[in-house]
Amino acid sequence: MVTSNRKTARSKTGAAFTLVEVVMAIGILVLAMSGMIYGYVQTNHQAEWSSMSLAVQALTVQSVEQARAAKWDVYSSASGSNPDELPPSTNTIIYTNSVLIPSSGKTMSVTNILKITSITTIPALRQISSQCTWYFPTTGKWFTNSVITYRGGN
Predict the structure, then answer these.
(1) pLDDT averaged over every residue in the chain
(2) Interacting residues of 68 by C-beta distance below 8 A, sequence separation 6+
(3) What is the DSSP letter of 18?
(4) How many Å apart are CA 119 and CA 112, to the nearest integer?
(5) Terminus of the chain with fewer CB atoms < 10 Å: N or C?
(6) Where are the domains of the chain?
(7) Please, are residues 125 and 152 in contact by the beta-carbon 8 Å criterion?
(8) Nearest to 54 by CA among 118, 100, 4
């Protein structure tokens, strides 16, 4: 009877993991988890950059649309009215806006430069260019969003 107990005890100890196997399993787990965490962090940075870039792009388009909506009547000959609210002689307008950063709740400063250039007089055609420059604090880099369009006289 003693011999059967020894055989059972030996088979139970042979079924356990060795220290090397446990360390290798933990190492593989650490590599897999660090890859997933790194991917999550990179996705978070990209989402933050995209949200800030989209907000700045909206400001860029807003300034172009305001310039396109300005009165410019090339066929008006009335002396009392101003046929051009945004003449190309004032071709550079600089705005400074604040944008709310969604992740932190802080605001960042955005510089918007609006340029109006006269392309031709017959037919009347102007180029409207808007550039917003902004700083992304996570990477420490500056970015510029641009919109360029043309406008003909009414």
Answers:
(1) 82
(2) 128, 149, 151
(3) P
(4) 22
(5) N
(6) 15-152
(7) yes
(8) 100
